[in-house]
């Protein structure tokens, strides 16, 4: 049963990676610090990936599920 659960998990991650192809996170960088005067700048950090990676994960998840079913049927 462990292999089947892992296959489902990998397949769901693959679907999410195909739907959402990236995200951004923002950090603050201190530009000037003169006593009580502080000037900060927001910096965007985009992270993106190809939907092909999601498709590969979906195929891998399906392969794990099918492999697990063939083990159960042969036992």
| Biggest pleated-sheet summary | 2 strands, antiparallel
Quaternary structure annotation? single chain
Unreliable stretches: none
- Given the helix and strand composition, which structural class is it? alpha+beta
How many helix segments? 2
Count of distinct structural domains = 1
Q: In which range does the helix fraction lie? A: 55-70%
Fraction in beta strands: 25-35%
Strand elements, count: 2
Distance between the termini: 13 Å
Coarse shape: rod-shaped
The succession of helices and strands, N to C, reads HEEH
Task: Kindly provide the radius of gyration, computed on alpha-carbon positions and rounded to a whole number of angstroms.
Answer: 22 Å
Secondary structure topology:
Layout lengths: L1 H18 L2 E13 L2 E12 L2 H24 L1
Structural account:
- With about 80 residues, the protein is of the alpha+beta class.
- It has one domain (about 1-75).
- It is about 55% helix and about 35% strand.
- It has two helices and two strands.
- Strands 1-2 form a two-stranded antiparallel sheet.
- Strand 1 (about 20-35) and strand 2 (about 35-50) form a beta hairpin.
